[in-house]
Amino acid sequence: MSPVPLIERYRDALPLEPDDPVISLNEGSTPLIEAPVISEMVGARVLLKFEGANPTGSFKDRGMTVAVSRAAGRGAEAVICASTGNTAASAAAYAARAGVRGAVIVPEGKIAIGKLAQALMHGARVVALRGNFDDALRIVRELAERHPIELVNSVNPYRIEGQKTAAFEVIDELGEAPDALAIPVGNAGNVTAWNRGFTERGARPILYGFQAEGAAPLVAGHPIPNPETVASAIRIGNPARWEEAMDAITSSRGRVAAVSDERILAAYHLLAEREGVFCEPASAASVAGILEHGLPVAEGQDPPETVVCVLTGHGLKDPDTALGKAPAVIPCDAELAAVERVVFD
């Protein structure tokens, strides 16, 4: 049986018009996976919300189904976004599903090959900008003001509305909210959305937001002009949802912290090799964060017993990083004895 489209499950909680079409690829209903190895390491029950199981392989599909459905309801003929990759793939797919033109602006040479392939295959017009994500977002915002085209970055309020449903799913599955949520932070829309979802269900878990050291404006307290990190999905120096994200984190009595690329890649390998979950590097920032910084609480707070780590995208999004960091393939003659030596030695 096919999963029920996200909008149909949660339409009463979404600000769509009655006549808006449902532009869906059956997104949502992503698995919540127990992580026994990481649980033992941090001393709490850790679960992984694997958003890489969405149709285009990332959490972006949750917001895109709502944003593109509303755009279609308004009669939009085209959608546009700036992207480090996942938004591009998702916007292109949902534009194709809706039968409208899709255009994506990406930083030249800064997009993982899997995400670029998706955007191109879905028929979007892909523009490689000689600049970074922040330059791209500035330009698409100006284009949307000058032309009748729908901007579907996380500045679009319908994106946040769709993404908040991940919090609904976690509460529905656990029967209550977790004590804490650990989440990678790039443009800061997703932590904003999760907080909204929890708040609408009357829940207030501790929020731990983690950025890469080379792209950590929320930690530094100022924009980063040239952000750099192996975690391309969070390589953003001036988050669009900065104030809302910080309000969400501080009001939960949580914290935002940075983790090095080395620790992100270590968590990336740990998830794949010990938990059997293959996520993209940026996703692993949530796990790297709790492994490095623990689960700190404010005075008077109880330590969290249940923590959900958000894994934002699938590992196949960035095959170059996986292959570049993985052990070498072992050549072998087509003989039983030779294969036995390689497998069992």
Describe what this molecule looks like in 3D.
This protein is an alpha/beta fold. It has 2 domains: 6-58 and 158-324, 3-Layer(aba) Sandwich (Rossmann fold); 60-156, Rossmann fold, CATH 3.40.50.1100. 42% of the residues lie in helices and 15% in strands. It has helices at 6-10, 36-42, 60-73, 86-98, 113-121, 133-146, 157-163, 165-174, 189-200, 217-220, 242-251, 261-275, 285-293, 319-325, 336-344, and strands spanning 32-34, 45-50, 78-82, 101-107, 125-129, 150-151, 180-184, 206-212, 255-259, 306-311. The strands form 2 sheets. The protein has a 6-stranded mixed sheet, sandwiched between helices. A 4-stranded parallel sheet has the order 5-4-3-6. Strand 7 (180-184), helix 9 (189-200) and strand 8 (206-212) form a beta-alpha-beta unit. Helix 3 (60-73) packs parallel to helix 4 (86-98), helix 3 crosses helix 7 (157-163) and helix 12 (261-275) packs across helix 13. The longest helix has 15 residues, at 261-275. It is globular and about 65 Å long.
Short précis:
About 40% of the residues lie in helices and about 15% in strands. It is α/β, with parallel strands linked by helices and about 350 residues long. It is globular and about 65 Å long.
